Each structure stands twice: as C-alpha cells, then as structure tokens.
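Q: How would the structure tokens look for this protein?
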Amino acid sequence: MKNYFNQLNKEMLFSISKIPNQNQSVFYSSKIQIIESTLEKLKIFLSSNSFLSMQEEIDYFKFQKPMIVSKLIFYKRLLFIEMERPHGSIENKIEHLENELKLLTIYCRENTAFVHYIRSGKSDMDERYFFRENARNYQMHDSFTCEIDYNNGTGHDYRLSVLIANESLENHIQEQLDAMKNPQLISSKTETSTYSSTCGSPNLNWTGSQSDLVELIYGLNLQKVINNGNIKLTELTAFFEKSFNIKLNSASRTFSDIKRRKTEKFKFIESMQINLGKYSEESSEN
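A: Here is the predicted structure in token form.
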C-alpha cells in the first residue's frame, strides 16, 4: 500500500505543479479535480487490496491519506473564500478573512480532546482512531458521522485532515492579512528573505513518507551541519516543508512514533547508508 500511495502522491504533485497560473478560482478548481481523481484511485485500490498489518493500516489513515485529503479540504476552502471575497474597501476584505480565522478557532474548540491528542504526539489511542474495525465500535457523535464509509476511512482520518488543512489555512490567511495591513513590511521581508529564491519550487516535491523526511530533518539538525547548528528545529522543518511542497502533520509527534519502533528504528537513514554503499561498490567496479 505504501509504495502505491507514494507513487500516486508523486504523480498528483507533479500534475498540480504543471497547472498554469490563471484566474484564482479556475486555478483552485483544477487542483481540486486532480486531488479528487487521486483519492478515487486510492479508494479503488483499497477496495481490492488488504493491509499487511494493523500498524500499516494505522499509518495509512493517520499519516498517508490525511496528507492528500487535507490538500483537498485546503483548496476547496480557498476556492470558497475566493468566491465569497467581497468587493469594496480593504476593511471589508480584512473582515472577510478575519471571519474565516474565527471558524478555524471554533473547529479547534469543538474538537479539543482530539486536537490535544494529535498535537501532543500521542499514539496510545491510534488503534481506536485509525484502525477501521475498532473505529466502527467507537463511532463519532457529530454532524458527519452518518457520512463515514468505514471501508475507506475511520472518521478520525477525516477529522485529522481538517486539522491539517486548517493549520495551512491559518498560515495562508494570516499572510494575506499581514500583506493587507502592512504592505511595506511584507515587501521588505520578501526582498531580504534567505530562502526566497528556492522555497516552494513546483519541480521539487517530497514523494517519500512523512516519517522519512522527519528522520532526515532530525538527523541534519543533530549533526549541526546547517549554520553550525544555530538553527531551530522548527525553522529547519519549515524550510523543508516550503522547499518540497509538503505539510508535516507534526514533526515531534512523528519522531515520537519513530522512537517507538521495535525494529528498523531509523529505516530511512539506514536505507540511505545501504544504497550509498551499493552505489560506491558499483561505481568502483565500473
């Protein structure tokens, strides 16, 4: 499942990167169509293939599927915001965006326990939240419970997707508000930004798993090879997110899950070491 997901995610990100700049509404709609098509392919694949273990299923509904569904929610919300954008004064536009921020706050307030669980990096309830058989026995009691397809999700995978999308929306809306309220400040920041020339390249997309990237980020941070170690982990994480067009659910939570692995704890870095060894041997022979 993981290999199929990674390949499909790679193809989706590539297709999105090829969408030409155009009218914002059309731009968002084009992205939505690609993401919906990808999710339909995942659904079909899942209907005829089984997970190899409970942990593989949990990883899919906790880390992999929300990675894509959150993008769908994000762009659908951006499309709605664009369609509802008021004409008139800058004050009206600011009020419009600030109302959207209030909706994000309300969602967090209504899902406090789950939000705290995710943000604290816990995993003791994963079998209940992200394993379909158990999710049926602990059904959610909110407005979209009746819409859950337990063959294709647990309900909480969607709830997590909304949380991830909301975090991206908050950053996006806040940037727009800052630009409206302090246009000169934003212009100055853009001109002096260290990463302005490299971040967010449409041709560079992380197509591995989130845990693979977290291993790499933590490894580089601990090796102190960037700015002689004078960089915060959050700054390094943000740089990789922007550079490779990916939103990490929570690097600290993911690293906590990595530490709990019983075998192949740092399998991505170990795999890199093995592949480097093979390449070295093959290049020497040639």
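Residues 1-192 form one domain.

Residues 186-202 have pLDDT under 50 and may be disordered.

Upvote if useful.
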